[in-house]
Amino acid sequence: MEQKFDSKETPNKYQQAFLESKVETNDAVVAAEVEKILKEHIAENDNKEVYQFLLNCVDLTTLSTTDSERSVAAFTKKVNDYWTNYPQYKNVAAICVYSNFAEVVRGALEVSDVNIAVCSAAFPSSQAHIETKVAETALAIEDGADEVDIVINMGYYLDEAYEELCDEIAEIKATMGDHHLKVILETGCLKTAENIKRASILSMYSGADFIKTSTGKIYEGATLEAAYVMCQGSPTNTSVSVPAVWQTPSSNHSPKPKYLHSKSPIPHQKSGAPKKGSVFLGSQRVNKFGLSGIRIIELSNYRDFGIRGGRGNGDFWGKNFVVGGKIVTL
């Protein structure tokens, strides 16, 4: 499935970006680097402070065929009651629902520091007319969504129809104004580090504010190796979201985004990306130097990872992101 082009031909702008990227795409090397990070940085972050920090990175999500206005309103009430039940902890970063429930969450949500995220644009298959995808996204924004998650058009990618793929993402982004757009790559379908690199570049080129590994609904979920490749290529002002299922001895949680910045090889359009030099943790922005001592800790039951996309200068190394519900410094 890995795509190649004739070296005798002049590469187009997309192929040129792939060639210029310095991201490691040898799968064996990537696996070894991930293993090295895990071995070196687990124990130093296995503490209460880190777990409390991670709790504020959670996107509390319901994406079920049985969701209803009543069930989503009850789901939102749990977030409203959180401060009363757990005053010692910060709230979750966001509530994530299907796009048709944005208005329900907006009407039921009583706390101001929790965002509304929705899955849109024919999620999770991405198989629909672009007009349908744009209309669904516009309606979700009108209904109160702060952030929209879409899935890359895998058919376009596999056909190497890069122009169509990028135009579709850009058109959806254009309908959102300053709201954040997350593009999910379905790395379980892409499989190789080379394909993951290319899909990351195309998504960030097209205006994604995040890139994320997988939906967990169709293909194999995320791997640490996929997250590693995505983090290498993400721009300095690209925020990184690495959602996962993680466990502590006393409870199970589903932490979602922690966001970082990165660097895009192909400038495209302005996306309202976060300010360079800061880090998003859910709805919270933190100066990156305040987190410089935090490194990777234990991983268990990981499923989805993601990276926020955008444009800027600089590289990713030395910055922090979350993997499997744990924090990593590369």
What does this entry look like structurally?
The protein has 12 helices and 13 strands. By secondary structure, the chain is of the alpha/beta class. The strands form 4 sheets. Strands 1-2-3-4-5-6-11 form a 7-stranded mixed sheet. The chain is globular and about 65 Å long.
Describe the SSE topology.
Elements lengths: L12 H8 L6 H15 L6 H8 L3 E3 L7 H12 L1 H4 L8 E5 L3 H7 L6 E5 L10 H13 L4 E5 L2 H5 L3 H13 L5 E5 L2 H4 L2 H13 L4 E3 L11 H10 L12 E2 L4 E2 L24 E4 L2 E4 L18 E3 L11 E4 L2 E4 L1
Parallel strand pairs: 1-2, 2-3, 3-4, 4-5, 5-6
Antiparallel strand pairs: 6-11, 7-8, 9-10, 12-13
Helix pairs in contact: 2-12, 4-6, 11-12
Strand content: 5-15%
Strand-and-helix sequence, N→C?
HHHEHHEHEHEHHEHHEHEEEEEEE
* DSSP helix fraction: 25-40%
How many helices in DSSP terms? 12
Shape: globular
- Which blocks of ≥5 consecutive residues have pLDDT under 50? 243-330
What oligomeric state is this? single chain
Ends apart, CA distance between termini = 29 Å
Estimate the mean pLDDT confidence: 75
Strand order of the largest sheet: 1-2-3-4-5-6-11
Instruction: Give a quick account of the main beta sheet: strands, pairing sense, barrel closure.
Output: 7 strands, mixed
- Look at the helices and sheets and give the structural class: alpha/beta
Radius of gyration of CA atoms, rounded to a whole number: 19 Å
Number of strands: 13
